[in-house]
Specification:
437 residues, alpha/beta, 7-stranded mixed beta sheet, 4-stranded mixed beta sheet, 11 strands, CFA/CMAS, lipid metabolism
Length: 437
Amino acid sequence: MADAASRLKGILEQLLGAPLPVRIRTWDGSEAGPPEAPVLVVRNRRALRRLLFKPGELGLARAWVAGDLTIEGDLYTALGLLAGSIWERDEDARTLARSLRDPEFRSAVRRLFALAGPPLPPAPPREEVRRPRRGLHTKRSDKRAISHHYDVGNDFYEIVLGPSMVYSCAYWPAPPPEGTLEQAQHDKLGLVARKLALRPGQRLLDVGCGWGSMAIHAAREHGANVVGITLSQEQAAYARKRIAEEGLTDRVEIRVQDYRDVTDGPYDAISSIGMAEHVGSARYLEYASVLHRLLKPGGRLLNHQIARRPQRDEESYQVDDFIDAYVFPDGELAPLGATVTLLERAGFEVRDVESIREHYALTLRRWVANLEADWSRAATLAGPGRARVWQLYMAASALAFERNRIGVNQVVAVRTPESGASGLPLRARVWGAPGPA
């Protein structure tokens, strides 16, 4: 009888209809596949049962988080090779139905069942959050979702994010190693402050303030009076400690508060950095309207938000299974155009849109490097499964940004008064000299 690796390789290639781009090593020590390729290590038969009972991305994610699957070699290369065979296959339900009618396809599935062993579905890893997607984005459900992602432990995030403690795209002057993550995050906060034209004494509302980095920057370097809001108790405690250490308690207030409960406007400026992805499409107009109401006439909003590419049929959009179950429960991405439209419907005048997509790929790669450099401690702090979740989602996201599958944009919008005076200069941005043809 052939070894397990050769058998599995043949089955998978028949199911995929293409050669397997990575090498496989199975639980019996056998290997098959391209000799120079990264190695997908199938550590036990349970990994196959996870795939059989939850085919596709979620089954793979469960096997990865549980440690049933690992990769030897460059993680980015392996994910890039697998993406073309699995995640980026443009197959619809009709294609799958045709496959299931194919006798050879059904034969391959039966052989996979035989190789996987007794057909009992393994329980999902404890890190998985699964609940019906109904009643989304209530104040209670949003707080629960935020807690799942951000209340992992501040010590764990210190490993991943580094001293800046900024959990959003940095703004790099040049690819590493010419620029450090800390300097790039400082430059991003400075960019936000410049776009908002922050001045001493102005009131800034920082929506989704994280661990307080933007609030501290605005108060310390621009003299602003800042209110930062978050739904994470751990973030708030950490931010307050940092603010006290900086001697800024008279200028910065951190609240555990939903954006819908903020009533003490008007503010001169609002920053929302990496928060709007949690709002959800059904609530986005409400979110934009709340921020518009909280701004004084002439006030500016800086909305920093990840965007997905638009689909031909927007009604068919589905949240990524892995991200929803393990990373950002109830999170949703919207196309840039939809975001701009809703901001305008809320009353904003959109004045500037800047894509910084490549910057996020650089940032994510640095976060992955930080995690892997202190893996043992990170796994002890958050648990091995949680550490594997963060490693996979950040590495896969870096590739998605590099391949233009998702983007990130900074939108400057103004609550323009009836006079029409936006308060922006005629040339709000200074572009560099043209490059070579």
